[in-house]
Amino acid sequence: MSATPCPERILLDNARLPGATDLTSLILADGMVHSLGEAGGTQALPSQRLDLDGRTVLPGFWDAHVHVESWAISRRRLDLHGTKSAREAADLAAEAAAAMSDPDEILIGYGYRDGLWPDLPHKDLYRGVAADRVIALQSNDLHTAWLSPTALRRIGAPDHPTGVLREIDCYRAMAALQEYSVDQVDAWIAEALDDAAAHGVTGLMDFEFGDCLPSWQRRVRRQRLPVRVSCTVYKEHLDVAIERGMKTGDIAPDTDGMVEAGPLKLFVDGSLNSRSALCHDAYPGASASSDAHGLLETPPDELRRLMGKASEHGIHSAVHAIGDLAAEMAIDAFEELACDGRIEHAQLLPPHGVARLAKLGLTVGVQPAHLLGDRDVADRHWAGRTHRAFAYADMVTAGIQVELGSDAPVTPLDPWLGIRAAVLRAQGADDEPWHPEQRMGIADTLTAACRGRSGLHPGTRADLVVLEHDPIRADLTQLADPGVVGTMVAGNWTYRTF
């Protein structure tokens, strides 16, 4: 489906807006919300009339943090979620490798969390057939890759002592091992985007490593997109992005209005599960090594230089900061440069971090589903500080624009998983919440899941989702299954079952 504005005048009748008791009607024209009125209205004789029969309509969801290519590929990988030890993960990989008919095929696994494992990943754990196959298992946070001896030889690192590669070494290894054709990857992405539309998603921010805008321009030429895309750029490609002359938010040419230039992605630190998130306090049990507090990926001077260079050309910065020291460095840089942008993750904020973020007017991109898997790891490695972890309620109360994302493939691209985690601070309504004082209200959470859109208003895009249940009025257990029955972009249906 295309984002070319639908020229027809569409009446969505007997619709319910979130939290409302009365039904209304929405008139859509030229891909925009034209007006709202009483149910049963017949303004201007619309060319289409659809009776929503009391279903709820709200702005379409934006997933504010996706690694699209990795997500699409991961849907075909060995799933290691739930593994309890390195030995178990290695045995699963060996079993999968033995079942592969082509001995030259690369086995990629993902999703393991070793923060609570009793043993450590190591190349020597690959035994038998697994030792002779090219195997790369990527951690759930994507910051660590655990390679087999044969995979290490493939990337030219046969003497690596452990086979466990972190941060930039991980990214380079995974890029070298993923030998997929452009046609194959684009087909997988098209399939994955259709699934996103079925979850009510109308847009996403793509944080795939590299310079993804040309790839999206190619995809639009091949097939109309069902979601809008904001394209980030990494520092290695900043000069190319500047040469294009496009500012953050500009619509890319020849993309049918579907693709926009996004921010510059910069890393200050790593992740919690890999113990590479940069923190003021050392990790428990860490030796007095240079990385006892986590890893500094971009020193402050270099961070400011890159952010300043981007800002001079109208490009915002999206700064990855998970630990409290990393967040402090990122806030310091934004404060000194007085530039626009966002902080990604902000899982552990320093004291006074919320107030400083609010004063700067920064957007914070968060992934509530992360707390479901990270709460126990945080209790162990951030003990005594978790009242500052995933501090969503504090941020909303301070007036910070919070935007929800999945970080797919780290967690599934399902906005309701993140919405439920933000509202409940737990897996389900009957589970014990983690730091319940940081729960977000459902109305604020929906706004955060819709890229800051708090409702449907005349003059706004007709990007919307139709639900069987009103999430404002429904029982909290229904947040797991709100019943997405329709998704629309620019007045065109990208998913519809009624």
TrEMBL record:
SUPFAM superfamilies: Composite domain of metallo-dependent hydrolases, Metallo-dependent hydrolases. The keyword Thylakoid does not apply. Coiled coil: none annotated. Keywords: Hydrolase. It comes from the Bacteria. It holds the Pfam family Amidohydro_3. GO terms for molecular function: hydrolase activity, acting on carbon-nitrogen (but not peptide) bonds. Residues 50-495 form the Amidohydrolase domain. This is Amidohydrolase family protein. It comes from Phytoactinopolyspora alkaliphila.
